[in-house]
């Protein structure tokens, strides 16, 4: 084995960065030791194995710390840290993982001189040997390293390299009585085979590289919302990103939720919605033209959330961005893309659900759908209805839409909002009566535009709704009290997964086993697909489906901010959803259901009347 | 990585001795009947929100939790699309319509103040 010259490791200067950024200088050492342990494990007898396991447990903590710090290398400019990272890579590849790590590392390793030092590595990475011909042709050394480390970590987590470090697998073995069943969404599985086939059909979106570049303008970004580590003095004004490695994981998780919701929509008996999985995947290709590509999402993020490409998103901010994309694209014009005709996207933040807003959204299209149906009927009966101008309807519809979207954008002035809200309600009422006047033949259709029709509509709604509820279930971690309720979410057939993760590590949860959540991890860099034709290629297409075995994670280390998605397709879905979040429902602990957004006219008055601060400043203790 | 309850520290508590705080809260409760003395500080882990200028509030006891949230929202000038979460000492969620006096009886500190931390969402990358 190669002796590691410890003097080569440079201690990162303190104070210059936040503490979690620095790569511990003993990274290589611990990995080496680990490797030794695992080798011995195979050879030695049982008592030694126990000892080895103890050693490994001790190291686990250290290594998890190291793993956490991988995320931040992108933003590190300090040479000491980069040196350490490069040494780490060179050593890890030399020691152990050679045959498992992809061609990039292999060719690096082959070309490394026997006793390579930092200088060599720098030269190596900058030379054409590496930049020209290898898997990762991205721009800088740092991006390269970042991507390598990310994939290395993924493999650690996956258990591909060393099993002890991995997250527990979803298993159906007889080792534990609890292991016998697992849930994916609301389906229960008893055998590995059936579980795996379902698991592998879930769409997995991961980091990609080499996509058309995104421009990050740091000077524009509001400092408030930036990751603090990005504000260091070394930053450059403009940066071009061709990979989302290190910052896009929340975006990827949201893409996963959306993609899988679309698949669900398709596989249900939603006949008008004819999109196969390939067409769905196409929406997520990493090119600027696609509606849900990382380009469009970050573009919208710039506008609505003041985030530049490269900034981190949270559960709520990403859902707000997606909602805006939907709001802009969704019209009833014939050129409206198919996907926006068939599904709408709604966000409720802070765990407060407003049922009437969901109903309004669903009604809007049901109404239109019914009218179209009526029109069709009438067309056959009376020629004059042919004149019933479609464009007129669209105009009316757009007006309605405009109005209904107005009460999303509530301003500080609460009274205003209420007026608008009432207006839009009235407008719906007026219109439906005027409809019934003109189309008296089919009164039952025009009557349908009230709330009840949502519950009596016997087939799927013409437009489904994907509802994401974002919440925070604790200050720094998810409170234990809510664990069971989170698992309960999956008992609803409407649930399309949960957005969440560990701190700085977003994951998409799709099921659970033994009180642990089964997740899909986007932290793996793959080459981006850019054309429809790429999806025809089976191998390339397969990069959108999970490759390894399903893993699960304990809930006590998770970030408290989560977003739960529900797909509402028909009256049954609506009823189940409403019931689950009602006061006595099984999910009432994590979110509360209200009929209307509060109309607190009294609240605003009260606020003005009471001047808290002056009251208290007089009696201030300080 | 994530600290739990240790994080529920308040500058207010560090600066003023318990006895003084207890006396003061007593005084306030007597003088302002029906008002809840609330100390609110930003969670140390939050990266989004700014600090409140005023961390001490006297809130009418019949205010709902939601109204209290609105007060803080206004103070922070938080856009509608951003989330605000307020946690009291047990880190539990509270229903929006719960009154502050009810929360006070559940979560008040020994010194007679109601302490809470506010935070927006975490960025998970």
TrEMBL record, chain A:
Keyword Oxidoreductase included in the entry's annotation:
no
Q: Which GO terms describe its cellular component?
A: cytoplasm
| Domain annotation Peptidase C54 catalytic: ranges | 193-578
Keyword terms: Autophagy, Cytoplasm, Hydrolase, Protease, Protein transport, Thiol protease, Transport
Q: Which domain of life is it from?
A: Eukaryota
What GO molecular function annotations does the UniProt record carry, in alphabetical order?
Answer: cysteine-type endopeptidase activity; protein-phosphatidylethanolamide deconjugating activity
Example GO biological process: autophagosome assembly
The entry's protein name is: Cysteine protease
Which organism is the protein's source? Stylonychia lemnae (Ciliate)
Q: What is the lineage of its organism?
A: Eukaryota, Sar, Alveolata, Ciliophora, Intramacronucleata
UniProtKB/TrEMBL annotation, chain B:
Please give the Gene3D superfamilies that the UniProt record associates with this protein.
Phosphatidylinositol 3-kinase Catalytic Subunit, Chain A, domain 1
Lipidation, kind Phosphatidylserine amidated glycine: residue numbers? 125
Keyword Cytoplasm among record annotations: no
Gene Ontology BP annotations: autophagy
Where does this one sit in the cell? Membrane
Q: Which UniProt keywords apply?
A: Autophagy, Lipoprotein, Membrane, Receptor
By its UniProt entry, which InterPro entries does this protein fall under?
Atg8-like (IPR004241), Ubiquitin-like_domsf (IPR029071)
Q: Which GO terms describe its cellular component?
A: membrane
Major location, coarse class? membrane
- Family per UniProt? Belongs to the ATG8 family.
Q: What is this protein called?
A: Autophagy-related protein
């Amino acid at each position: 084995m190669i002796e590691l010259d410890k003097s080569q490791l440079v201690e990162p200067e303190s104070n210059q960065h936040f503490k979690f950024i620095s790569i511990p200088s003993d990274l290589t050492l611990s990995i080496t030791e680990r490797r030794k342990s695992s080798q011995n494990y195979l050879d030695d007898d049982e008592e030694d194995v126990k000892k080895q396991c103890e050693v490994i447990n001790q190291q686990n903590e250290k290594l998890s710390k190291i793993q956490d710090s991988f995320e931040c290398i992108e933003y590190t400019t300090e040479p000491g840290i980069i040196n350490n990272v490069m040494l780490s890579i060179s050593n890890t590849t030399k020691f152990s993982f050679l045959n498992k790590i992809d061609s990039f590392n292999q060719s690096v390793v082959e070309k490394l001189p026997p006793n390579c030092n930092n200088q060599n590595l720098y030269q190596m990475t900058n030379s054409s040997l590496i930049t020209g011909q290898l898997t990762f042709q991205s721009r800088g050394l740092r991006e390269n390293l970042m991507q390598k480390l990310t994939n290395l970590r993924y493999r650690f987590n996956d258990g591909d390299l060393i099993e002890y470090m991995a997250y527990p697998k979803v298993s159906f073995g007889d080792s534990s009585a609890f292991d016998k069943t697992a849930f994916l969404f609301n389906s229960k599985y008893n055998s590995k085979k059936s579980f795996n086939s379902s698991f592998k059909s879930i769409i997995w979106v991961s980091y990609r590289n080499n996509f058309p570049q995104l421009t990050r303008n740091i000077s524009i970004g509001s400092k408030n919302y930036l990751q603090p580590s990005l504000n260091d003095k070394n930053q450059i004004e403009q940066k071009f990103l061709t990979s989302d490695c290190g910052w896009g994981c929340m975006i990827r998780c949201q893409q996963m939720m959306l993609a899988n919701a679309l698949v669900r929509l398709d596989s249900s008996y939603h006949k008008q919605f004819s999109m196969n999985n390939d067409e769905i995947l196409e929406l997520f290709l990493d090119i600027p033209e696609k509606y849900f590509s990382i380009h469009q999402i970050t573009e919208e993020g710039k506008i609505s959330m003041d985030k530049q490409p490269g900034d981190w998103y949270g559960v709520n901010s990403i859902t707000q961005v997606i909602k805006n994309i939907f709001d802009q694209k969704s019209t009833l014009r014939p050129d409206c893309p198919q996907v926006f005709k068939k599904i709408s996207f709604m966000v409720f933040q802070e765990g407060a659900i407003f049922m009437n807003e969901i109903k309004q959204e669903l009604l809007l299209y049901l109404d239109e759908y019914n009218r179209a149906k009526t029109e069709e009927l009438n067309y056959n009966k009376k020629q004059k209805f042919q004149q019933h101008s479609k464009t007129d309807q669209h105009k009316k519809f757009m007006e309605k839409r405009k109005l209904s979207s107005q009460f999303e954008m509530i301003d500080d002035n609460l009274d205003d909002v209420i007026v608008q809200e009432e207006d839009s309600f009235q407008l719906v009422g007026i219109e439906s009566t005027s409809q019934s006047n003109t189309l008296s033949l089919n009164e039952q259709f025009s009557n349908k535009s009230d709330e009840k029709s949502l519950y009596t509509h016997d087939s799927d709604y013409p437009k489904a709704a994907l509802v994401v509820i974002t919440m925070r279930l604790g200050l720094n971690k998810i409170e234990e009290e809510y664990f069971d309720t989170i698992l309960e979410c999956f008992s609803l057939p409407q649930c399309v997964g949960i957005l969440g993760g560990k701190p700085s590590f977003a994951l998409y949860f799709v099921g659970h086993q033994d009180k642990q959540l089964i997740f899909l991890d986007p932290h793996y860099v793959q080459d981006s697909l850019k054309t429809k034709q790429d999806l025809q290629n089976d191998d390339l297409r397969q990069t959108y489906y999970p490759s390894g075995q399903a893993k699960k994670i304990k809930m006590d280390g998770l970030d408290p901010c989560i977003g739960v998605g529900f797909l509402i397709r028909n009256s049954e879905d609506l009823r189940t959803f409403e019931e689950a979040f009602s006061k006595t429902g099984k999910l009432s602990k994590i979110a509360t259901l209200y009929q209307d957004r509060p109309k607190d006219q009294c609240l605003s008055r009260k606020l003005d009347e009471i001047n808290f601060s002056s009251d208290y400043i007089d009696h201030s203790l300080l | 990585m994530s600290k739990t309850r240790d994080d529920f520290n308040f500058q207010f508590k560090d600066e003023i001795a318990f006895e003084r705080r207890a006396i003061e809260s007593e005084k306030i409760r007597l003088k302002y009947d029906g008002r809840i003395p609330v100390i609110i500080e930003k969670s140390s882990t939050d990266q989004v929100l700014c600090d409140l200028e005023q961390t001490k509030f006297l809130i009418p006891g019949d205010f709902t939790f939601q109204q209290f949230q609105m007060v803080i929202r206004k103070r922070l000038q938080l856009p509608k699309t951003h989330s605000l979460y307020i946690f009291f000492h047990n880190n539990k969620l509270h229903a929006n319509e719960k009154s502050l006096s009810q929360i006070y009886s559940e979560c008040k500190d020994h010194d007679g103040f109601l302490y809470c931390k506010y935070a927006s969402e975490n960025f998970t990358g």
